[in-house]
């Protein structure tokens, strides 16, 4: 029997967090090997483990997978979270790519220079409420099902919940005016594997704090901003 997937990344959200969400929602246990120093990253690189010298890297089914979207696609396909046909997959791809754009804006927020932070937060709030959430509220209304695509849980539902919770960290009232998304959030949060992942002590990561920001800057050798 194959062992648990092993995730190589720093101990924070970043690009790995959606992978953690997807595995946990699929009920897959995983191990994490945290990169804590530049030397840890160098070792992974020098040992030939990183195809493009970048993480996330996930050891799964005998592969050392890199590239976030490739890993997500693989996990979603393997655990039947990627629609039942090519059209459902196309829709899941469109939804998740939109969410990934939003996710990226929120993820990089802690790394932006303090004097630009307020403007960035205002921009995110505007994009969330004017561009992204209306799409998903309408999708749920038009589709009339409990899930975004088809009539079963998919990667799109999981990533939407992840993004909603992140957006709520920027603006707690973000779902005001989106009644179907409020119901969606409550419904998807009750799915047992997801409910478990939402509990304190799970492998879900909190937003980056000042200490973790310094660690990330040190590992990846970049300046804030
Ligand atoms: N397209 C890649 C981008 C990966 C990436 O930029 N990873 C960063 C950490 S989040 C990294 O490893 N940076 C080190 C480097 O590029 O040398 C993906 O989505 O996985």
From TrEMBL:
Residues 85-208 form the GST C-terminal domain. InterPro entries: Glutathione-S-Trfase_C-like, Glutathione-S-Trfase_C_sf, Glutathione_S-Trfase, Glutathione_S-Trfase_N, GST_alpha, GST_C, GST_superfamily, Thioredoxin-like_sf. Keywords: Transferase. It holds the Pfam family GST_N. Coiled coil: none annotated. One of its GO terms (molecular function) is glutathione transferase activity. One of its GO terms (cellular component) is extracellular exosome. PROSITE patterns: GST_CTER, GST_NTER. It is an enzyme of class 2 (transferase). Residues 3-83 form the GST N-terminal domain. Signal peptide: none annotated. GO terms for biological process: glutathione metabolic process; xenobiotic metabolic process. It comes from the Eukaryota. SUPFAM superfamilies: GST C-terminal domain-like, Thioredoxin-like. Its EC number is 2.5.1.18. Belongs to the GST superfamily. Alpha family. This is glutathione transferase. It comes from Puma concolor (Mountain lion). The gene is LOC112862760.
């Amino acid at each position: 029997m194959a062992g648990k997937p092993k995730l190589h990344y720093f101990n924070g959200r970043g690009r790995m967090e959606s992978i953690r969400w997807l595995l946990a929602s699929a009920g897959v246990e995983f191990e994490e090997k945290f990169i804590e120093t530049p030397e840890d990253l160098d070792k992974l690189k020098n040992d030939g483990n990183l195809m493009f010298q970048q993480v996330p890297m996930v050891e799964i089914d005998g592969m050392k997978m890199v590239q976030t979207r490739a890993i997500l696609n693989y996990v979603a396909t393997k655990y039947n979270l990627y629609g039942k046909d090519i059209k459902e997959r196309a829709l899941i791809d469109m939804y998740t790519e939109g969410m990934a754009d939003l996710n990226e804006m929120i993820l990089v927020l802690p790394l932006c220079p303090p004097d630009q932070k307020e403007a960035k937060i205002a921009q995110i709030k505007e994009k969330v409420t004017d561009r992204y959430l209306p799409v998903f509220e309408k999708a749920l209304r038009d589709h009339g099902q409990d899930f975004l695509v088809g009539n079963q849980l998919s990667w799109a539902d999981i990533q939407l919940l992840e993004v909603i919770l992140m957006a709520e960290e920027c603006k707690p009232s973000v779902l005001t005016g989106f009644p179907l998304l409020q119901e969606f959030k409550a419904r998807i949060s009750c799915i047992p594997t997801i409910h478990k992942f939402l509990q304190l002590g799970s492998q879900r990561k909190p937003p980056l704090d000042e200490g973790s920001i310094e660690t990330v800057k040190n590992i990846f050798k970049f300046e804030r901003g």
